[in-house]
Amino acid sequence: MTAPSYRSPVDEDTDPVELGVTLLAHLEHEQLSLADAVDRLETITTDPNVTREILDTAEVRGIIDREDGIISPQSGSFVRFESQVVSREGEFDCRRCGSSLSTGYFIQFDLGEVGPFGSSCIRKVTGRE
User: Fold this and answer.
1) Would you identify the CATH topology of the domain 16-73?
2) Buried (b) or exposed (e) across 113-128, using 16+ Cβ within 10 A?
3) Cα Rg for the chain, rounded, in angstroms?
4) 58 with 25: CB under 8 angstroms?
5) Which of 69 and 80 is assigned the larger pLDDT?
6) Which parts of 1-129 fold into alpha helices (H)?
7) Which Pfam families does the record cross-reference, listed alphabetically (predicted)?
């Protein structure tokens, strides 16, 4: 039996704001544009109000600096691919680009999981590409 194909929202029990702040805290970019940050956050929510709340919360907590449309992550954390990224076989749609996948990559945080992503989108979302 294969996993169902989905592009589902974050688990209902997971706070998308907290998960978004966690994702921003783990980006490996020195800087990225606001548009690129929103691209990453759209893997968690497409609601502009929630996205704004994620960015505001991350800034207030010192996770990011925002100036002139540029986001600078401040936490120094990053996604550990060996322990925080898992792959699953099945039929998935990439949360970032929408492509059909037979192998999905998921980022596991204490608060919840983000994914699935394809092999290039997982690197893009985490800032390794």
Assistant:
1) Arc Repressor Mutant, subunit A (1.10.10)
2) ebbbbbeebbbbbbbe
3) 14
4) yes
5) 69
6) 16-25, 34-41, 48-60, 81-84, 119-126
7) DUF5830
Supply the pLDDT for residue 11: 57
Give the model confidence (pLDDT) of 78-91 as tens digits.
Answer: 777 778 899 999 99
Distances (CA, A) of 120 to 18, 72, 94, 117, 124: 25, 22, 10, 8, 6
What pLDDT is attached to residue 37?
Answer: 93
Counting every residue written for the chain, the total comes to 129
- What are the sequence ranges of the domains in the chain? 16-73, 81-126
Sign of CA dihedral 40, 117, 93, 120: positive
Is 70 exceeded by the pLDDT of residue 63?
A: yes
Whether pLDDT at 124 is above 80: yes
Distance, in Å, from the CA atom of 18 to the CA atom of 13, rounded to the nearest integer, reads 11
Please give the structure tokens belonging to residue 75.
Answer: 């936490």
CA dist., res. 98 & res. 66, Å (int): 28
